[in-house]
Amino acid sequence: MTVPEVEVRDVPDDAYLLDVREEYEWVAGHAPEAVHIPMTQIQARVDEVPSGRPVYVVCRVGGRSMQVAAWLNRLGREAVNVGGGMQAWELDKRPMVSETGRPPMVA
């Protein structure tokens, strides 16, 4: 199965952005409107992911998000991988926030 992929600059501002990184990565820096469900929890929490709209899946560089997007698509969801992940997001100077009280960064 081929998984659709977009560059970070092509992720719509109102997208449902699913961040599948681990907790420490999320805490260090993430997109302000992203929803956090770590890859290790996605099967148990899949009902939290909307089924009536595209889901843009992001991780650090794109590998984990590609796997999650492929799995969601096999379930009949419309999932798109965000190419380059949060590293590309940061390089493109897209908005980021952290949970640490310090400037956001990609861990």
From TrEMBL:
Q: Where in the numbering of this chain does the Rhodanese domain appear?
A: 11-98
**What highest taxon heads this organism's lineage?**
Bacteria
Can you say what this protein is called?
Rhodanese-like domain-containing protein
InterPro entries found in the cross-reference section? GlpE_sulfurtransferase, Rhodanese-like_dom, Rhodanese-like_dom_sf
